[in-house]
Amino acid sequence: MKPFEQLVTDHGTTVLRICRVLLGPGADAEDAWSETFLAALKAYPELPADANHEAWLVTIARRKAIDIIRIRTRTPVPAADLPELPSAHGNPGQDDGGLWRAVGALPVRQREAIAYHYLAGFPYKEAAELTESTPAAVRRAAADGIAKLRLIYPRRPGSPATEGVVK
Amino acid sequence: MTALDPAALLSPLAAPDPELLRRLHLRLETAAGDAGALDLAYTTIGTPVGRLLLAATDRGLVRVAFAGEDHDAVLAALAATISPRILRAPSRLAEAVRQLEEYFAGSRRRFELPLDRRLSKGFRLSVLEHLPDIAYGRTESYGQVAAAVGSPKAVRAVGTACATNPLPVVVPCHRVLRSDGSFGGYLGGPEAKAYLLGLEAAA
After folding, report:
1. Which domain holds residue A127?
2. Per-residue pLDDT for B175 more than 80?
């Protein structure tokens, strides 16, 4: 069995990407990452020797993130705190704030599909198993999510800004 | 107009700041310790005899390893024999690091650290427990050590015990020489043994 430190080194970044896409790049994602690795460390000696460490960790991370989303949605959010519409101007690729807000406005299933397939690199089939979905549904959710984000960043960085249409 | 491919579109989301990962690691070290889930903490330090790996359980320092032993292999062995719940957690080794730095600076002659001896058993353990009785700057022969632990004929076994010392430097197997005064083997290599004996002779 590998020393647990090796798992943190190998998969810490992927787990953090997933937590941030599901929860936004703030304290909630940091809490989810910390809770994921602490729970994994506790359970690690009982993990079967042939287990896929990355799949195991991102499954725990998803459970922690969903717990946090449930707590959030039970708390009424004042209208003033609704996400702002991202600007179509600015500097694509560097305007993280706008992109993060846009990701945060996507339905959870689309955020999951983007996180697992595009950021963690799981094929649709594996992403579906890890998120209790089907490959077709994950593919569709990822495509829908990307299409919405493209409305905000329609062009390659460096091309002239256009009037973005965001509905 | 060319639409961004998904990888380019998502690239600002993909690379978390390394500083954030360091902070999260530190938080994990603390939380794991508080939860009693950290069975082995380790760190590495640079010394005149090369980089040393230090590993500790909640009972004390359990392993010191020279670079030549391959630190990754040593950690893998600890995962198999003690527990895989291992994290790099330098704060847990701060006192050991401080005393080793003092030793290499020539200002410490005796280590005062809790030791976890679980990696040594039987005759080897009695040999290793005798070694701190050899004073700083002094040496004994393998035969003298064998006599001191009550098995004067077990000279070879003393050699084996020293060669498999899990806590070199701290448990001074470098103070044991062949009866003709030559060095005998050493886990850290003959240069490291010569360095330690020279350091102690000079202080």
Report:
1. 84-167
2. yes
Residues of B tagged active-site? 173
CA B121 to CA B119: how far, in whole Å? 7
Of B14, B15, B86, the CB nearest to A4: B86
Predicted pLDDT at A75: 67
User: Which of A37, A119, A162 lies at the smallest CB-CB distance from B13?
Assistant: A119
The count of domains in chain A is 2
d(C-alpha A144, C-alpha A157), whole Å: 21
pLDDT per position as a tens digit, B154-169: 999 999 999 999 999 9
Residue B4 lies in a domain: no
Q: Give DSSP secondary structure letters for A118-167.
A: IIS---HHHHHHHTTS-HHHHHHHHHHHHHHHHHHS-S-TTSPP------
Residues A99 and A66 in one domain: no
User: Is the domain of A9 the same as that of A75?
Assistant: yes
Q: At CA B39, angle to CA B36 and CA B42, rounded to 5?
A: 120
Domain count, chain B: 2
Q: What is the pTM of this model?
A: 0.86
Whether B22 and B76 map to the same domain: the answer is: yes
Q: Where does a domain end: B56, B75, B104?
A: B104
β-bridge pairing B40-47 and B50-56: antiparallel
